[in-house]
Each structure stands twice: as C-alpha cells, then as structure tokens.
Write a sequence for this structure.
C-alpha cells in the first residue's frame, strides 16, 4: 500500500451547510492554501469545473438562502 493512501487526507464532498466545511474554505481564502485542512474536497457532478469557484458559489447560495428565505 502506498504511503499516500496510508497518510493522505480523506476525500470529502463539499457541503456548504456544514459549518466545518465553510470554516476550512474560509481558512483557504485567508491563507491561500489547503495546508491545515484535514480533508480534501471534491465536487460531485461538476466535470472539470474549478473546485474553488464551485465552492464559492455554493457558499454564496447558502448565505443568500439564509438572508432571503423564500
């Protein structure tokens, strides 16, 4: 088994409703890197879309839905 599989951070589907995921994303925005993030994010059903752009859009949608409840 490879060292990366043994010690690599687990993959997690990004969920904007998850407080920890939003905190990790905010840390990335502030530091410019994922160095302290305990997981690796993936976006399902997005093809080759830019991960950070999709995450940003989902966070914006989350906070907009809180502000302007339909």
């Amino acid at each position: 088994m490879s060292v990366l599989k043994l010690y690599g951070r687990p993959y997690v589907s990004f969920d904007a409703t998850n407080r920890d995921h939003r905190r990790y994303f905010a840390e990335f925005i502030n530091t410019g890197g994922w160095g302290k993030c305990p997981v690796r994010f993936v976006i399902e059903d997005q093809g080759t879309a830019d991960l950070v752009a999709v995450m940003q859009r989902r966070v914006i949608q989350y906070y907009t839905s809180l502000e302007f409840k339909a």
About this structure: Residues 51-67 form the longest helix (17 residues). Residues 3-67 form one domain. DSSP finds three helices and two strands in the chain. The beta strands are 11-13, 40-42.
